[in-house]
Write a structure and sequence with these properties.
7 strands; seven-stranded mixed β-sheet; Aminopeptidase; alpha+beta; about 150 residues; globular
């Protein structure tokens, strides 16, 4: 895998590229201003860059001693290359370095690829949040997962 992980997310043009991935990955994407806000403290972000293009990102919120993986996405053309795993491992290490003791996330119950990734990087299923995610056909459950750091 030939990617670079960059934690300084304020690289000219990079946030626009990351936001385009966000828009393509979400049924109801955040506004651009919300996305940008999630790159500033108490949040932090990391970009995956391949051949000078952003191919993935992760956004994390850190409060007291818990981190929450707020959003993560990889460009559809670059999936199955280990980029998602690299992003998850990076944000877990970063949060641990910042004295966080656990990381939480919510994932669509139907997103078996993401669930597998999270399980393989140390996350455990905690509970189900019913009817959490909006879909074209109604609502979908979310799995809440946690990893100890």
């Amino acid at each position: 895998m030939n990617i670079q992980l960059v934690s300084n997310t304020h690289i000219e043009g990079a946030l626009i590229q990351a936001y385009r991935i966000h828009e393509a990955s979400q049924y109801k994407p955040w506004s651009y201003s919300t996305f940008i806000d999630c790159t500033n403290s108490p949040y932090f972000g990391v970009l995956a860059i391949k051949d000078v293009q952003v191919v993935g990102y992760a956004l994390v919120l850190e409060v007291v001693d818990e981190a929450t993986l707020m959003d993560i996405a990889v460009d559809k053309r670059c999936r199955q290359e280990g980029i998602g795993r690299a992003l998850v491992e990076y944000v877990k290490q970063h949060a641990h370095h910042n004295k966080m003791t656990s990381m939480w996330l919510e994932v669509r119950a139907s997103n078996v690829g993401a669930i597998s990734l999270y399980e393989n990087t140390g996350f455990e299923h905690i509970e189900v949040r019913k009817n959490y995610y909006q879909t074209a056909n109604g609502k979908e459950h979310a799995k809440i997962m946690k990893a100890s750091l």
